[in-house]
Amino acid sequence: MIDAHDQVLVPGFIDLHSHADFSIMADPAAQTQLLQGVTTALVGNCGSSPFPARSVAQIQRDNAHLDAEFTADWTGARGFFEAVHDVGPGINIALQVGLSSIRSYVMGPNDAAPDSQQLDSMKRQVAEAAEVGVYGFSSGLIYAPGMYSQPNEVAALVAEAAEYGLLYSTHMRNESDRLLPAVEEAINAATAAGARLEISHLKAMGPENYGSPALALARIEEAREGGLDVKADVYPYTASSTRLTSRLPGYAMDGGQETLLERLSDPLQRSKIAGDMAARFDKDIDPEGVVIAALGAGDTDDDYTWAIGESIAQIGRREGCYAEEAAMRVLSAHGASVGIVNHAMDRDDVAKVLSHPLVSVASDGWTLRPKGEGMPHPRSFGTFVRVLGKYVREEGLITLEEAVRKMTSQPAERLQMENRGIISQGKIADLAIFDADSVRENSTFDDPWQLASGLSTVLVGGNIAVKDGQVTAQRYGNVLRKR
């Protein structure tokens, strides 16, 4: 018997945008998720999935900023499915296959257009992943090597994904001064393919671009009225978190991280990269807001672990250099694998997007362990309870019922998961129970390693995974396959 007196019973939350595929093997208990009520996470977002893989070790190195830690080896989706199943995840994991991962597998990390044979090979990778049971195909068009894909290449792969009924999730090509053209590119690709489209973490970076998410939402509404199945998701914060290399000009990453390090060792190339980065300052990059969150291992004598929690501007002042040079130094010292928290968004934009009925709540997080090193983004610890505590209870931006819909039935609809996302006889019993008056996030940017509170009970597949606010020892998650 579960006592839920004076509490709220809801379906388990479904996180439409997670990167837990890179961290679930090291931390399968997923405590940060269960204590928010998350029972299912869609991974493989932003064009990055741990498969297809020619070298799992290389994937781990390239994604060190995502706490990437793997305990098995594989080449394709089937092997990764089995590896995650074997660790016994605490939450359900639904997979996508990523454009950047496919491109790197077929072409390497290079800025080049695929020939017809390479494009066919990339399409086969989409098809093979679909046949194994992935739910979607994703792109991350601000990240190398995905950024090197031209619209016709992306459209061809989206069309292949649509043949198998996969969702197309996209971290669009631009989130600043060309946000609207980026939305248009995504809509055009999905329309031509007949694909379902999910626009990932809709936002605008930089003061010059504040207000543009409202125009993007209007375009999404127009596309839906025209017959396209398109929606979006958002995390409820004004800061993003990503890799520092995403702030560099695209050519800097041509050839991958090792080639970038070679460029940074050449004074002329280093100066050009730094100058092109600085040209974006006070537009869509605020050097005071680019904060070091995590560092990969380095092979130099320099160590910037002291700089975790510091902005590149603060590092520059401490070292007597410009912010862009500070960024180059940190990248050079830590194998070009540097995670950042990037403060660059407008609160009103976040509220506008969050309150829109076509937008789901999603974390874009990956930190699953309750304690660790670095300064990770609070969204891994508090996205869903932040909405319930801050935006429902404290500010009244949306109703409790609407917030729950954005975390349950709407994400389930996007993934065509008919047995999850609602409470009904015969459905899978992924459930959460919380106190609406006390549920809250405790994680902050200054002190992120704090678990959420207010969730008393969570069930995964009808089994008690959280009891009296504590994660139980047994794990009940599954690797889900699209049928």
Automatic annotation (TrEMBL):
The cross-references to InterPro entries, in alphabetical order and at most eight, read: Amidohydro_3, D-aminoacylase_insert_dom_sf, Metal-dep_hydrolase_composite, Metal_Hydrolase, Metallo-dep_Hydrolases_sf
Amidohydrolase domain location: 2-465
Q: Which UniProt keywords apply?
A: Hydrolase
Q: Which GO terms describe its molecular function?
A: N-acyl-D-amino-acid deacylase activity
Which Pfam family, giving just one, matches this sequence?
A: Amidohydro_3
Q: Which SUPFAM superfamilies match?
A: Composite domain of metallo-dependent hydrolases, Metallo-dependent hydrolases
EC nos: 3.5.1.81
Report the domain of life of the source organism. Bacteria
What is the name of this protein? N-acyl-D-amino-acid deacylase
Species of the source: Brevibacterium marinum
